Amino acid sequence: MPTDSLLQPLDSLYRNHHNWLQDWLRRRLGDRERAADIAQDTFLRLLVQRRLPEQGEGRRYLAQIARNLVIDQWRRQRIKQAYLESLAAMAEPESPSLETRAIVIETLMQIDAMLDSMPTKVRKAFLLSQFEGLTYAQIAERLGVSVSSVQKYMLRAITACYQVLYAE
């Protein structure tokens, strides 16, 4: 349960900036309902994270959180759309159930977040290995690093995959 030391400033932040944030989002998104949802999610994120902006930084801080939420939503929609397009190409008997589809979309979102959180060279090494089938020596040459660096990158990437698989 949040403490009063958090609730009072959050309440004040909400009263002073909620309408502004919702209007700001509506102008950018062109969708009143989506703007209202993201504005609420922004304040919910503040409550859950228990982090408030510094004095005078409220709007900038709220706008950054809201931007991140919009990006997360956009990425989720992009992944879902790509998956649904691939399903549409399948024969009807091969099409997975709605429950399986939801699980696959959630898994794809976790993979996307995992890849996005990796340092650039780690992500590139992992993708070159897994999707282009390059050897560590070929990856090292392509990235301009040593083979031992590629080994370290792959260890980090595989550890991240393992953490996503077994986080629960």
UniProtKB/TrEMBL annotation:
Instruction: List the InterPro entries.
Output: RNA_pol_sigma-70-like, RNA_pol_sigma-70_dom, RNA_pol_sigma70_r2, RNA_pol_sigma70_r4_t2, RNA_pol_sigma_r2, RNA_pol_sigma_r3/r4-like, WH-like_DNA-bd_sf
Domain RNA polymerase sigma-70 region intervals: 13-78
Domain of life according to the entry: Bacteria
**Which NCBIfam families does this UniProt record tie to the protein?**
PRK12528.1 (NF009180), sigma70-ECF (TIGR02937)
Do you know which CDD domains this protein is assigned to?
Sigma70_r4
| Chain ranges of the RNA polymerase sigma factor 70 region 4 type domain | 109-161
Give the similarity note: Belongs to the sigma-70 factor family. ECF subfamily.
Indicate what this protein is called per its UniProt record: Sigma-70 family RNA polymerase sigma factor
